[in-house]
Fold this sequence. Notes:
Helix content: 25-40%
Number of helices: 6
Mean pLDDT: 92
Number of domains: 1
Order of helices and strands: EHEEEHEEHHEHEEH
Strand content: 15-25%
Structural class: alpha/beta
Amino acid sequence: xxxxxxxxxxxxxxxxxxxxxxxxxxxxxxxxxxxxxxxxxxxxxxxxxxxxxxxxxxxxxxxxxxxxxxxxxxxxxxxxxxxxxxxxxxxxxxxxxxxxxxxxxxxxxxxxxxxxxxxxxxxxxxxxxxxxxxxxxxxxxxxxxxxxxxxxxxxxxxxxxxxxxxxxxxxxxxxxxxxxxxx
Length: 183
């Protein structure tokens, strides 16, 4: 079993959230593959890394993560998504589990638009979406501070991620691990 994390992070906040989820997956003895999209992956405006796409074909789940910029995913992540068109044609990711992580500077900075993009992207690939399953304020889990069921949403005004948002990312990692182990 292997869970992949594909993400872009500029300020480091998205990286911190992804790392919290990865730590939870590793605590459950599930192998991870982590790929942080770099500017050097984009050549003449196109993402170019066929090896990455081949690795993702063999993972059981993929977590997508990007900061929310101007109401959507970062251009670097979008370049990656566009490069998966051949994978889409083959439906090589059909049946895999997908989840998403994002952050923005405002508590309601249209982060759900980014998560909705991830859901649409995953659905085009035939993937199955995994949300949080934790209603804000109705449990003692101390997660989902911003009340988004679709995935991990964080609000980061500085280079420091709120502890509850990190706990939410860890919660998603645990939830994903449990689901993968039971399938």
